[in-house]
Every structure is written in structure tokens, then in C-alpha cells.
């Protein structure tokens, strides 16, 4: 599913309003009756203001939230769980995370490392591609620390270093 459609179908405005005529209807979050003067309307259901929280980090959700399977998420936790995954660690990448994007892969900065010495590969640094998700820094390549024969590896210079949102919304 494209990220535009993820946003479109899963982002919700949190509406504030007076309770429906059925005062005491159950809260969608805790299932207790809503007896407050005001309620929050999310996913077309009434909620106590204190129950509208991210199901991952438990932070209150003020104006916008994301949902999947009737669970509410803040923006960062939603994208960590359902967004692009890091090719190095397999964890989700939040829109605010800085990433490296070699070829068609995306890596957290800390995951874009030499597979031999674990040194983080920097912008402009030469690296050698072992396979889609493994790279060798120039120093380890020259010292012959990688697999043999290493003559078939491709040398590239890494130049991309941007925020993830660049890849979600162009």
C-alpha cells in the first residue's frame, strides 16, 4: 500500500463535541460510561479525553491520530509499525528519522555500517556492495577482510543523506 493511501485512510481528526443524546454511552477506549460534559469523537465513536492515547507510547493524542485495527497511534509509532522498514535492522522508520538510501533500500543512519568493522558509512565515503543489505568500507576492502574473491564487488560512493519525509512526500 502506498504511503499516501496509508495517510488518507488511517489519519483521523479528533473532534470535540457534546455527548450524544444517550448520555452515559460507553467510551470506545475503556468501555466505561461517558458522563463528562464533553467527549472526543474518534473513528465515529465517543471517547473520554483521557482515553485518547497512542496504544504504543501512551502519549495523549490532541488533534490528530492514526488507526489500524481499531487501535490509535501517534504519527511516529504508526509509521514505525506500518511504514517503511530499515533494510539493516528490520525496524520501522519514523517520518522524522534520518536515513541513508542506497539504491532502492532505506537504512537508519546507525544501521548503514560496514559488515566487517561496523563503522558507520558516511556521505561521500567509498563502499563496496557485498549484497543488497551488506556493505564493506574501503579500508576493510583494501585489507582483504571481506569474502573472497572480492574482485567482483561494485564500488560506489554514497551521497544521499536526507530525512525520511523526503521519500514519503515529494
From TrEMBL:
<keyword id="KW-0479">Metal-binding</keyword>
<dbReference type="InterPro" id="IPR001781">
    <property type="entry name" value="Znf_LIM"/>
</dbReference>
<dbReference type="GO" id="GO:0005634">
    <property type="term" value="C:nucleus"/>
</dbReference>
<feature type="domain" description="LIM zinc-binding">
    <location>
        <begin position="85"/>
        <end position="147"/>
    </location>
</feature>
<dbReference type="InterPro" id="IPR049618">
    <property type="entry name" value="Lhx1/5_LIM1"/>
</dbReference>
<feature type="domain" description="LIM zinc-binding">
    <location>
        <begin position="25"/>
        <end position="84"/>
    </location>
</feature>
<dbReference type="GO" id="GO:0030182">
    <property type="term" value="P:neuron differentiation"/>
</dbReference>
<protein>
    <recommendedName>
        <fullName>LIM zinc-binding domain-containing protein</fullName>
    </recommendedName>
</protein>
<keyword id="KW-0238">DNA-binding</keyword>
<keyword id="KW-0440">LIM domain</keyword>
<keyword id="KW-0862">Zinc</keyword>
<dbReference type="InterPro" id="IPR049619">
    <property type="entry name" value="Lhx1/5_LIM2"/>
</dbReference>
<keyword id="KW-0371">Homeobox</keyword>
<dbReference type="Pfam" id="PF00412">
    <property type="entry name" value="LIM"/>
</dbReference>
<keyword id="KW-0677">Repeat</keyword>
<dbReference type="InterPro" id="IPR050453">
    <property type="entry name" value="LIM_Homeobox_TF"/>
</dbReference>
<dbReference type="GO" id="GO:0000981">
    <property type="term" value="F:DNA-binding transcription factor activity, RNA polymerase II-specific"/>
</dbReference>
<keyword id="KW-0539">Nucleus</keyword>
<dbReference type="GO" id="GO:0008270">
    <property type="term" value="F:zinc ion binding"/>
</dbReference>
<dbReference type="GO" id="GO:0000977">
    <property type="term" value="F:RNA polymerase II transcription regulatory region sequence-specific DNA binding"/>
</dbReference>
Amino acid at each position: 500500500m502506498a504511503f499516501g493511501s496509508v495517510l488518507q485512510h488511517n489519519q483521523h481528526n479528533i473532534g470535540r463535541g457534546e455527548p450524544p443524546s444517550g448520555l452515559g454511552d460507553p467510551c470506545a477506549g475503556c468501555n466505561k460510561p461517558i458522563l463528562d460534559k464533553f467527549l472526543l469523537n474518534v473513528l465515529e465513536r465517543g471517547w473520554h479525553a483521557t482515553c485518547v492515547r497512542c496504544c504504543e507510547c501512551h502519549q495523549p493524542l490532541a488533534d490528530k491520530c492514526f488507526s489500524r485495527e481499531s487501535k490509535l497511534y501517534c504519527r511516529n509509532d504508526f509509521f514505525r509499525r506500518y511504514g517503511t522498514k530499515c533494510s539493516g535492522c528490520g525496524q520501522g522508520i519514523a517520518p522524522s528519522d534520518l536515513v541513508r538510501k542506497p539504491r532502492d533500500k532505506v537504512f537508519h543512519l546507525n544501521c548503514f555500517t560496514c559488515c566487517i568493522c561496523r563503522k558507520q558509512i558516511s556521505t561521500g565515503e567509498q563502499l563496496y556492495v557485498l549484497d543488497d543489505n551488506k556493505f564493506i568500507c574501503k579500508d576493510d576492502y583494501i585489507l582483504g577482510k571481506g569474502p573472497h574473491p572480492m574482485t567482483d564487488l561494485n564500488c560506489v560512493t554514497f551521497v544521499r543523506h536526507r530525512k525520511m519525509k523526503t521519500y514519503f512526500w515529494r
